[in-house]
Amino acid sequence: MVVYVALCIAITLFCWISDEHTPECTAALQGIDSKTVVLLGKVSLWVMVFIFDRFVQRQHSAVRRRGYLDFYRLTRGIKNLPLLIHSAGNALILTVIAPSSLLDASVKNLSVYLLLSIICLELLLSLICLIRYSVHVRKFNSKKPHPDVTEQERSHGCSSEVHTETGFRDGSSLEDVVEKQADLIDYLKRHNSVLSRRILTLTGQ
After folding, report:
1. Per the structure, how many domains does the chain have?
2. Among 29, 37, 43, 149, which has the minimal tally of Cβ within 10 Å of its Cβ?
3. What's residue 163's pLDDT?
4. 36-43 — which CB contacts under 8 Å span 24+ positions?
5. At CB < 8 A and 24+ separation, what contacts does 140-145 make?
6. What are phi and psi of 124, to 5 degrees?
7. Do 129 and 178 lie in a common domain?
8. Which of 195, 85, 175 is nearest to 132 (CA)?
9. Contact predicate 155/133, CB 8 Å
10. Do 86 and 39 belong to one domain?
11. Three-state secondary structure along the chain?
């Protein structure tokens, strides 16, 4: 994303705003229109963000299956934001490009400035989301925790009082409680299936 934005700024300064470097731009871009290069780069960037999003979704599904439900819920919203930001940016870019001739007629190079502003805003918002996401992942990996159920059992075993998360309490959201219980039940079912297969294997041996 940083490299793409840097290239867009360079193309804007040397190819769109100033006419002094037009021959150099034409030679560097091998005769391709500079706006076409920017748009093709934007499409390529969106495809890379989409592939990254699919990879992250797959990893988080595996994390959820392994019982790290709190971490899954903590990062569920933020991990989807980069793709949503770039998709919204694509829609804004199309909105600017469609009436670009009308915009440039009122103010010279207005469409170029708007296009560059959208691309820079995408970069800023995406970096904020990715940095926050990286902090959460780094903290999670540094703790190296066991699945949530195991961690709760350990904390309950060390304390004199047993604090349960089951049921609805004042100040908690019913949807959150139901979702948390559903995730926990799903994990326990998978865990029981794995244990059953291990028992059958040991019995056979």
Report:
1. 2
2. 43
3. 46
4. 37/11, 38/8, 38/11, 38/115, 39/93, 39/97, 41/4, 41/7, 41/8, 42/4, 42/89, 42/90, 42/93, 42/119
5. 140/68, 140/71, 145/68
6. -60, -50
7. no
8. 85
9. no
10. yes
11. CHHHHHHHHHHHHHHHHCCCCHHHHHHHCCCCCHHHHHHHHHHHHHHHHHHHHHHHHHHHHHHHHCCCHHHHHHHCCHHHHHHHHHHHHHHHHHHHHCCHHHHHHHCCCHHHHHHHHHHHHHHHHHHHHHHHHHHHHHHHHHHCCCCHHHHHHHHHHHCCCCCCCCCCCCCCCHHHHHHHHHHHHHHHHHHHHHHHHHHHHHHHC
Domain final residue pick, 145, 173, 197:
145
**What's the average pLDDT block by block, 10 residues per block, for the chain (205 residues)?**
90 72 66 79 94 91 80 84 93 87 75 88 94 91 76 55 48 58 70 80 85
